[in-house]
Amino acid sequence: MVKTAKVSASHETGGLIVHISGLLPSLSPAEQRVARLVVADPADAARRTITDLATAAETSEATVIRFCRSVGMDGYPQLRIRLAAEAARRVEPPDARVVGGDIPPGADLAQIIATIAFSDARAVEETAEQLDAAVCEQVVEAISGAGRVDIYGAAASGFVASDFQQKLHRIGRTAFYFPDVHTALTSAALLGKGDVAMGISHTGTTLDAIEVLEQARARGATTVALTNFPRSPITDVADYVLTTAARETTYRSGAMASRLAQLTVVDCLFVGVAARNRARAKKALEVTAEAVQPHRVKGRRA
Amino acid sequence: MVKTAKVSASHETGGLIVHISGLLPSLSPAEQRVARLVVADPADAARRTITDLATAAETSEATVIRFCRSVGMDGYPQLRIRLAAEAARRVEPPDARVVGGDIPPGADLAQIIATIAFSDARAVEETAEQLDAAVCEQVVEAISGAGRVDIYGAAASGFVASDFQQKLHRIGRTAFYFPDVHTALTSAALLGKGDVAMGISHTGTTLDAIEVLEQARARGATTVALTNFPRSPITDVADYVLTTAARETTYRSGAMASRLAQLTVVDCLFVGVAARNRARAKKALEVTAEAVQPHRVKGRRA
DNA sequence: CCACGGATGAAACTTACTTTCACGGAGGCG
DNA sequence: CGCCTCCGTGAAAGTAAGTTTCATCCGTGG
């Protein structure tokens, strides 16, 4: 558990708002009220005094301080300053009404496209911003040295898991993805020291993924979690925690932005692993590309 | 105090640093020392407490307050916040070397992350920009009215296809995805007028996808292609062509940005379809979300 | 039903910020 | 030449903001 402790130290710059929204579910009700105010209008919050903000959130100053600590700040003044900085950096979204998070009932397709692209792109950028390079590095190292890598994810996260599996496989690393929990658990039971198990769950509450990591950990394997919520249950069973920064809107079950954010992280890990052994990875990619050549139409593409 | 009065009105936003340097000569010696510190490193000044800054400027807190008033602020906290905001606005452009597209051999993970995030986010944004809303609208309409939707994609595009299938399924539309060409062809043969077949291929040269669309078209189904290359072979067999805008870099076989771009398009179509029948889609999402509830850890994510 | 633990706000407390005021030195005037 | 005035200055008092402590409340599980 010690190694994950330092994860919190990352967030030195940027992504504070997203970071807060990520922590939101893990906060107590009163703190959530504060968090919502802050997220809704960071610039405004930065202008307020602690008493003022406490009143606005219908709570006490003490709770506001607790909130500050919960999101990793020393105290209120620091939060204020970080919020001011964050707010200043903010790019004005194309259409405030649309981008507010939700898609209005009467929206036409052009609006929908703008909204989605905005939140998708933001998720990717913000995820990268708050990603802890040190933790990534360790995960890359673990994967590079692993005899075997098991990846698990359900539903939408399953695609991501599967995508990562395919990528690793293509550069010659032994990786598995099992859509079925039972098979995954069986496989996890066969992992050992030096192997890696990775669980992907946006909410971090998917029982199946947690079980798989637990099993893998019990066998001595290194466990990695990829989730949007830094304090969700899955992080309890992970040696390394990688977080995404997606604020899903309505249709959240559609898991749109979160999925892109997860893929971004996967890309980073993939390139990291590939970069560790450029020659071998490059060779593997060329060979695999050749293999599918007969399935392509020759000639123009422009 | 009269001299400073008029200054306060202007400079509501931005240019604070410049403003201060302009006023510098008109300030008293002790205030100038404060001003110089502030101008030299606004971000650092924002971090300091008033006592701290006073000590650093070898003066008293009172002078710092006077300085605040001299430059038109209400008090120290306001100055702090404005400085933080100002400092944050100075965005340093991402490392050109990294962002150029390719990843240099000696790159560390932080660089890799920045590069990937940049190209991924760009792909998403640019794809949305060039996406033809009218074509999307027609595709959405076709899918909404379809008795059945067959989606085909190979390898990386297969994930996207599968993702789309799952999404449509979740909102109650009959959609299929077959990882196997043979099965896909068989299925395509059973399509008819009013049905939709969608082929996803980054290069637009994947034979399998083309064959599936050809088959579907021959049966009277509406065919849709999703590709990065607007004039690639697959577009010849498609009634509607949707394009992505991803410029893949090295490791292109890794299909990173292209995949995100494809997913963005899929998201747009999905939301478009869902928006056509909000009530039904919402209901379906709720029901499906409930269905997996037992597989989640209960309680808040602490 | 009780014991427990977490969440919460009131109040005590500390620190940061602001104001007041007295000192000292520069310049002006008698 | 000396006194008077005014401005800049920091010490110290005063006020407001932020922080800690602790008693209470409420839901949970034994």
UniProtKB/TrEMBL annotation, chains A, B:
Entry protein name: RpiR family transcriptional regulator
Every SIS domain range: 139-279
UniProt keyword Protein transport, yes or no: no
Annotated keywords: DNA-binding, Transcription, Transcription regulation
Entries under PANTHER family matching the protein: GLUCOKINASE, HTH-TYPE TRANSCRIPTIONAL REGULATOR HEXR-RELATED
Keyword hit for DNA-binding: yes
Source organism of this protein record: Plantactinospora mayteni
Record-annotated HTH rpiR-type domain positions: 14-90
